[in-house]
Amino acid sequence: MTKSASDTSAVRTLQEAVHEGSPTPLYYQIYVILRDKITSRVYPDGSLLPSEHELEKIFGVSRITAKRALDELASEGLVTRQRGRGTRVTFKGPYSSLAGDMHGLLEDLLTIIKETDVEVLEFDYVPASPSTADALKIKTGDMVQKAVRVRRRKGTPLAYVTTYVPEDIGRSYTLEELKDNPLVALIERDGHKISSARQTITATLADSTLAEALEIRVGSPLLKVIRVVLDENDKPVELITVHYRPDLYQIHLNLTRARANTKNFWSTT
């Protein structure tokens, strides 16, 4: 039995295999493979995914398994499904940030703020933990303003944001102002001109709190960004931890080839 042109193209695109002995259900393995192809633009916005029948042949699974994988993508908002028209990609691509450049970083933050809605889950004054105190260069137990927010784009959660600000700065704005303004703008309004930031990027898994807020499964991978923001006097004015859904946000760095001491290396621009 020969494959159709459509089947052959789909097989070339989907090289990964599913593993029947894995504790992860087959439908979810297929879902992960397809999601990766969508977020990496192998299947760009507007393109058609292989049909249930094609996936059935490619992966050697039942039609029900193939259908459930596609349904999972639809529930994530990555595709739309129409009877007789197939499954079409609706993912338009993640936000990106130039982590090595302060101007690019702030520009990116303002873009996110402009294109998302925010829900404030917590706004309070709490004693600084040892790690928070160390980041903000204050004493453990000193009061800080803590805010927890979720940012959504077109109703889909993008990021879970936790910020700590020294109490004297935090008292300069209200909950309502935080809903409507970038925190960096409120800090600068208080007389602290933002100058630089130290940023750490790592990967983590969603616990029950993050999973509920970001509408994902417990254990789903997340991009974790920790940033200490400094004013022009090198005073820490904000500690922010952001958990991003990696299907909706990526961080890109521009690298320039540099030469020093006869050794080649890459540096950020």
Describe this structure in words.
- The protein has 269 residues and is an alpha+beta fold.
- It has two domains: 5-89, Orthogonal Bundle (Arc Repressor Mutant, subunit A); 95-255, Chorismate lyase, CATH 3.40.1410.10.
- It has ten helices and twelve strands.
- Strands 4-5-6-9-8-7 form a six-stranded antiparallel beta sheet. The protein has a two-stranded antiparallel ribbon with strand order 1-2. The protein has a two-stranded parallel ribbon with strand order 3-10.
- β11 and β12 form a beta hairpin.
- The longest helix has 14 residues, at 26-39.
- The radius of gyration is 22 Å and the shape is elongated.
- Residues 1-11 have low confidence and may be disordered.
Secondary structure blueprint with pairings:
Elements: H1 5-13, H2 26-39, H3 52-59, H4 63-75, E1 79-82, E2 86-89, E3 95-98, H5 102-115, E4 117-127, H6 130-136, E5 143-153, E6 156-166, H7 167-170, H8 175-180, H9 183-189, E7 194-205, H10 208-214, E8 221-231, E9 236-244, E10 249-252, E11 255-260, E12 263-268
Parallel strand pairs: 3-10
Antiparallel strand pairs: 1-2, 4-5, 5-6, 6-9, 7-8, 8-9, 11-12
Helix pairs in contact: 1-3, 2-4, 3-4
